[in-house]
Amino acid sequence: MAENQTEQDPKGKVEAARKAFEHEFERFAAFASSGPAVPGLKLEQAEAEQRVLAELRTRHLGKKSALAASKKAIGAVAPDGRAAFGQLVQQTEAEITQKIGRAEETLKSAIQSARTERERIDVTLPGRRPRRGHLHPITIVRQRIEDIFVGLGYAIEDGREVETDFYNFEALNIPETHPARGTQDTFYTTEGFALRSQTSTVQIHAMQRRGAPLRMIAPGRVFRRDTPDPTHNPMFFQVEGLCVDRGISMAHLKGTVAEFLRRMFGPGTTTRFRPSYFPFTEPSAEFDFSCFKCGGTGCRICKSSGWIELGGSGMVHPNVLRAAGVDPEVYSGFAFGLGIDRMCALMYGLDDIRLLFENDVRFLEQFD
Ligand code: 2NL
Predict the structure, then answer these.
(1) How far is the CA of 156 from the centre of ligand 1 (A)?
(2) Nearest to 218 by CA among 232, 205, 231
(3) What would the pLDDT profile of 293-307 be if each residue is shown by its tens digit?
(4) pLDDT in tens, 66-97
(5) Residue with the nearest Cα to atom 4 of ligand 1?
(6) Between 173 and which of 156, 293, 309, 319 could a Cys-Cys bridge form, CB atoms 3.0 to 4.6 Å apart?
């Protein structure tokens, strides 16, 4: 039997070991012959090859290899053939060692240069400039409004967004039965507090704290249970103004709103007041201003009317002054309110105010 023959044939065993090595080493032939750089060899690939090669070395040159067994068998060979057999074993081992060694060297330097290449940085490249942020369009408009009123001698007041029934409704002369007080229109916490539905709450606090005379605006976030659509959002921004002093009349209201709108939209801006109704003012009026785009001749923005509706206003109701600790026999005042987001949408030509609250930077970046 062939196998039996090899068993008894030490030379044949060495030849078989060499053949087995040559066969497995075929895939490394390129590394054994080529220079330090192996074209097209990726780092991960080279590292994997290195592991395979290490296993191959153990298998063919290790303690349990066929070659090691042949080495041990040298002593058992008949004296006349021993030297020649010993030489064959040594020569075979030297050849295998050299081939594996060369392949290892090639792989090592290939890995080395692949690592160096990967970690290479060009220190002469210009640095990456951090992108500078910018204000949200609502903030831009709010600050313009604030600047104008500060210029007219008004203080800017801030307050909480969660309020008691008293500040959100009661003090504003909004009757218990008014629909705004229902859960249909207002968000309530489980403890029965309201998310403020207008910033008048801030003005009641300010009147209580500072008393009259008083000139202030209250910009801020307000909440109403509206179904979102292009002109409504359950959270939006509002600014309310309040002026309380002796002898304040409707003339002061009209003069102030008209001056504000001239400073906001240009000196040619005209204002008109239309009678209206609010529980917290009497008399009450809504105000419009001449279209800043067409100047009143009619266009898409003003829907061909020449006018843009902006907000509500009126003379502070005596009940409101009283609730805030101001004597309506001595003092009178005017108040107004307008939506900042609506104004923002108008000024930037937005067709949907919800864009202002989605925080999509691709949209917001346009207002740098
Ligand atoms: C609107 C209408 C308005 C007020 C707000 C007010 C505040 C106090 C007393 C009396 Cl403390 N009134 N604010 C008055 C009239 C109208 O807002 O359309 N807002 C967007």
Answers:
(1) 16
(2) 205
(3) 999 899 988 999 999
(4) 999 999 989 888 888 899 999 999 999 999 99
(5) 336
(6) 319
